[in-house]
Amino acid sequence: MTELKYDDKGLIPVVVQDWITNEVLMVAWANAEAVELMKSTGYTHFWSRSRQKMWKKGEESGHVQKIKSIQTDCDADTLLVRVEQTGVACHLGKPSCFDEVIYGETDETMAIIPDLMRVIKDRHENPSDESYTCKLFNDETRMCKKVIEEAGEFALAIKDKDTDEMAWELADMIYHTMVAIEKTGLPMSEVYKKLKERAE
User: Fold this and answer.
1) Strands (E), the chain
2) pLDDT grade for 2, boundaries at 50, 70 and 90
3) Does 133 lie in the same domain as 68?
């Protein structure tokens, strides 16, 4: 196993990602003891540079992070930890600490996926008669028909080589598929396993 490289203060930076979406949730620091605690308990632990003490993420708030995997970079001086987040990661009550855009745009990136997943989940947990998503949740046949319909329209757009229409129909297909995933409770981990088989 690769030997980790800590800085002159005995610390190593830790990037924490959501295990389903790969959304970056936070960055913190760990010493060797914190790393061992993460491996032995299965939950994130860090070293607070300001308080000079060990802390378990969510110990007081309940917003714990269950570890799915720990990886190191090619220089072995940074850790990437994928977690199942309970509640929110940011102490300001936001899903991710990386919420403010200071340059460029995120509209054309995959950043929309975790945002949309949260909206769909909220519609499921807090239904509203006015919500189209909630209407799909309440009518499984309609939901299934929409998945089939949007997939067919995407295929036709491919045949027509219409880029704008392909983008529109694929977005519709992804959205309706995400609704179906939330409704059925399909574990994305099982989907990823199948995708991995296709990459081998």
Assistant:
1) 12-18, 24-30, 45-48, 53-56, 65-72, 79-85
2) confident
3) no
